[in-house]
Amino acid sequence: MRAEARFKSTGRGVHSSRSLSLGGNRPLKPRYSQKRIQLLWFVLLLSAGLLFQQNSRDIAAYVNRPIAKVRIENQWQQLDEAEVRSLLAPFIGTGFFNFDVSGVKQALQQHPWIATASVKRIWPDSVALNITEQVAIARWGDRQLLNQYGEIFEPHAVDQYAALPRLRGPDASQFQVMEQYQLMNQILFPAGLRLNGLFLSSRGSWNLTLNEHMYVSAGRGEVGEKLERFVRFYDGQDVLHAKRFRTIDLRYGNGIAIASANQELTSVAIR
User: Fold this and answer.
1) Superfamily, domain 64-133
2) Which has fewest Cβ within 10 Å: 47, 62, 82, 95?
3) With a cut of 50, which residues of the chain have pLDDT below it?
4) What is the Rg, in whole angstroms, of the alpha carbon atoms belonging to the chain?
5) According to CATH, where is 3.40.50.11690 located in the chain?
6) How far apart are CA 220 and CA 204, in angstroms?
């Protein structure tokens, strides 16, 4: 600590003034005890608690607002927005934290065109939907459709999908039929042959409809090899001649039997 004396002369006499500085001319810092700090925090927390208690209903209502908005995060081809909103209607108006996400997801996935649905809450009052639609690959029987995995779904107004290939088979055979349909398409498509129908009999025989007017009996075994044999033969035919083919029988070990539109039966041996 250092003391400095300063003297100043005036007309009436001599006065002295003293100034004290501590710690290199830094100002003195107030000192608060630990108890005073704890007491201050206690008072603040108590005040906040009383404030929350007095306004708990208003605060809870503000935080847990009712769900009122639906955000659609992807585009749909088959789904109707009005149908989706109708499925959501029983859940709208529920508080944000009470909103039944799993219930909404289950309700949405009961719709025949919805394969999967993702539901997410967005505070303060919204819900976001991300829906994956079914992809119809073929008809199954008269009233059902098959997706790319061979799964059956049954939407309304199936008749508008009449242009899709028609697949048939015994109960629970849709996965096998869809698998064969995809394999057969790979063989037939390069030759310009469209597979419009595929039927699996109860005895395991395969029958096909090609280009809407050719009916093929492929039998049970080595179906892929038989189709490849027919494709090689078909590629070598005159286009106009091939268009007259009506029934093709591939159930021969080394040949093909073909009936054309003029009822002529042709047997072709292939080695």
Assistant:
1) membrane protein fhac (3.10.20.310)
2) 82
3) 1-23
4) 42
5) 138-269
6) 6
